[in-house]
Amino acid sequence: MGKKTEQSRITYNKMALEYDSSPEGSYTRAHKAELIKKVVVKNGDTILDVACGNGFLLAELSKNAKVNAFGVDISENMIAVAKKRYPNSTFLAQPCFPLSFENRSINVITVSCAFHHFEQPQGFADECMRTLKNDGVIYMAEPYFSPLIRWIANMAVFPFSHNGDVRVYSSKELSTFFRTAGFTKIQTYIKDTILFFEARK
């Protein structure tokens, strides 16, 4: 486990029980709302929410169809909360890379406000290509910073942060990871402070 991944595990273990009322929980609420609005699921789909936290996003998406719902998160305490709240879904305490799922076994992957914590972003994009079925989709909602603020965060803040933040990305940078992994159908847009990303296999 890398240094930043371990920092993320410690950070989210500490806030797991009070996440919803925390500043972090408040900040990420809009990201989840955008995903709930945009993610398309059908009866019989297998959904994987990566960095699922306390399970809220996965539970909301599971209301839209009869799905096989899985969530993974590096924080054992977050997973414990998710299991207690949403017993009809399967939650696993494990990192985002590598993913412990079979080749071409998932229809939809979601990531809410967490990709900037991933120490191996290209590796994760490659894992999405491996595990998604043909026509499968990865949806992400990430923080959007202006170029100047993004540079300050990446160069002067995150290297010294102990919360597990690695790097925030532009739309072009996100798209490059997934094009390199083999995705060709990519869409992005910016809404207020949210960078929405969608890539179809």
Automatic annotation (TrEMBL):
The record ties this protein, via InterPro entries, to: Methyltransf_11, SAM-dependent_MTases_sf
What is the superkingdom listed in this entry's lineage?
Bacteria
Task: Enumerate the spans annotated as Methyltransferase type domain.
Answer: 48-139
Q: Which Gene3D superfamilies match?
A: Vaccinia Virus protein VP39
Matching Pfam families: Methyltransf_11
Which Gene Ontology molecular function entries are recorded, alphabetically?
A: S-adenosylmethionine-dependent methyltransferase activity
| Protein name (database record) | Methyltransferase type 11 domain-containing protein
